[in-house]
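INFO  loader      accepted 1 record
INFO  loader      residues=167
INFO  predictor   begin
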Amino acid sequence: GKLVYPTKKMYEGIFNNGVLNGNGKIIKIKENNDKDINSTKQIINKITYKGNIKNFKKEGYGNEICNEYIYEGNFHNDMKNGKGKIKFIKTGDYYEGDFTDDKITGYGKYIWSNKHEYIGDFNEGEMNGKGIYKWPDGSEYEGEYINDKREGKGKFKWSNGAIFEGI
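INFO  predictor   done
INFO  writer      dumping tokens
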């Protein structure tokens, strides 16, 4: 069946006793409410989810696509939780690893569109903990991070072979 709310939310899939459970689809549409003389409301973001649903919430494995990103992975309680992959459409950046409550948190690998790469610990989208950052020229830093900054013990290797190790 299909259930459409006036709030621009649609559920499609198998209903049992009035509840959507199992494999299905959820679509949310966010509109721009600013009225302009020459236009009507415009859709500013359409979020489409296909995957497992429990009690009208994303639960288990699924895919979510919107204007900002494409995500494939695990959901719990309607949020990205567990292992997943996300590609950011505007920047071309890519992340694969752990998510907690819709945030990049845990261990993973982030690759920027400019080919810079970080493998290590994240907390709410920032490099926090231990990790390795690699530049396209072959330089790399392995060590500790706090709030996206190299902080603490580490080892920096330049592409020319020079090495610094310390705090």
